[in-house]
Specification:
23% helix; 7 strands; 3-stranded antiparallel β-sheet; globular; single chain; 21% strand; alpha+beta; 147 residues
């Protein structure tokens, strides 16, 4: 199942960044290819997934337990929710047109999110990229302060 693999990838990259940072503040950002209502988002934002969750990967030894520290999405921390979308693109999938939030700026507890780059609340283009938006992903940004 693709989402189980995404859970493994999210856990591995988060664990490695957290191991590398140690007690130092850190940021982890990019195109994650998962939506806010999915188990990889839950894993990143809470640091865990219940073993009863249907998208918990099964390790060959019989168990898989992620060991990461919960992070906050800068947009969710500042706005109280994620942006309605960070990507709008024509795909080869069955619905052809995809609109959703796939991009995040994850911050450790050491950061205070002062502001975020405003993103549109409504669709302003059939698809991205456009002349004004040169990627199929919107530009994210945040102003942070060490707490």
């Amino acid at each position: 199942d693709a989402v189980k693999v995404m859970n493994i990838h999210a856990q591995l990259v988060a664990a490695e960044v957290q191991r590398f940072a140690g007690d130092d503040p850190y940021l982890l950002m990019g195109d994650w290819n998962f939506m806010p209502d999915t188990s990889p988002y839950e894993l990143m934002s809470t640091g865990k997934l219940p073993l009863s969750h249907p998208q918990v990967p099964v390790h060959p030894s019989g168990s898989w337990t992620p060991s990461i520290t919960a992070m906050r999405s800068a947009y969710a921390a500042k706005l109280g929710k994620e942006s309605p979308f960070t990507n709008r693109s024509d795909t080869s999938g069955p619905s052809k047109l995809f609109t959703g939030t796939l991009d995040y700026i994850w911050v450790s507890k050491s950061w205070e999110v002062l502001d975020v780059v405003p993103l549109p609340d409504t669709i302003t283009s059939e698809t991205y990229p456009t002349a004004a938006e040169p990627s199929d992903h919107l530009l994210l940004g945040a102003t942070l302060k060490l707490a």
